[in-house]
Amino acid sequence: MTTEQVVPIGCADDIVIAREAGRDLAGRLGFSLTDVTMIATAISEVARNMTSYAGKGELRLYVDSRNRRSVLVVEAVDQGPGIEQIERALEDGYSTSGGLGLGLPGARRLMDEFEIRSNGHGTTVVMRKWAPRGV
Amino acid sequence: MPIPILKQGSFLIATIQSAMSDNDAQRLQDELMQQVGRVRATGIIVDVTALNVMDSFAGRTLRTIAHMTRLRGADTVIVGIQPEVAFAMVQLGLTFEDIHTALDLEEGLAHLTGRPVSGGSADDH
Q1: B19: contact with A, CB 8 A cutoff
Q2: What is the pLDDT of residues A59-88, one digit of tens each?
Q3: In Å, how far are A40, A47, A122, A123 from A55, measured between CA atoms?
Q4: Do B93 and A34 touch (CB under 8 A)?
Q5: Nearest C-alpha of chain A: how many angstroms from B13?
Q6: How far apart are CA A59 and CA B58, in angstroms?
Q7: The whole model's pTM is what?
Q8: CB contact (8 A) between residue B56 and residue A100
Q9: ipTM value for the complex
C-alpha cells in the first residue's frame, strides 16, 4: 500500500472528508477503534488549522514502512502566511483565532510522531502513527 | 446536513449525525438558541451517540451551547459520548468539566427531570 491519497482542504466540509479518509485508511491498516478515532481527531485539527489560518491547503495520507512495520502518515501542507511563533502554537491554550488553542498540541498528543515546519510561505505538518504489529 | 431537533415536553432533543461539519455545529447552536425562547424549553439534550470524532471546534460549540442556553434558563446535557471518542477528547485536552454529561438519552432525561433512571421511587415529580 503505497498509494497516496490527497484531500484538498478549502472549506469546513473538506475537514469531514479528510477525517473520513483517515478513518478508512487507519481501519484498513488494522488500527483499533480508539486509534482510528485519535487519528481522525488529529486530522480534523490540522485540517481546520489550514482553513482557519491559510484558507486552504492539502492533506496527504499514505502508508510508510519502517523496520517492516507500517506507519500511517498524515501530511498537511499549505501555502499560508506561516506560523510566527511555532513554540507558542504548540502550547495548550494559545490561539490567535479565538479558538481553544488545542489544535496543534492536541494533535501532537494524539499521534505517535509530530513534526512541523513553517516559514513565511507556508506550513507543513507531518504526523505519524505506527500500525499494530503483524499487519 | 441539518441536525434534527425534537421537542418533548419542555425539553429539546438534538440528535447529531456522524459527519457533523463546522457549519452544522454552528447552525445547531443558532437553532437551539432560538428554539429555547420559542418553545420555552427548560432542558436540552444533545445526543452525540453517532458522532465518531469530537474535535476542538465541535467541543467548543457544544460548550458554548451549554453556557448560552443556561443563561436563557435551560439546562443542557450532552449524552452518548462514545468510549473511544472520550479517550481521544482527553488526549486532545477537551474535558467538558463545566457542562453536564450523561451516559445516554435515558440518563440525560433522568438528569433533567431529577428522576432516578430505574428502580427507586420517582415520587418527587
Answers
A1: yes
A2: 999 999 988 899 999 999 999 998 888 888
A3: 20, 10, 11, 12
A4: no
A5: 24
A6: 20
A7: 0.91
A8: yes
A9: 0.90
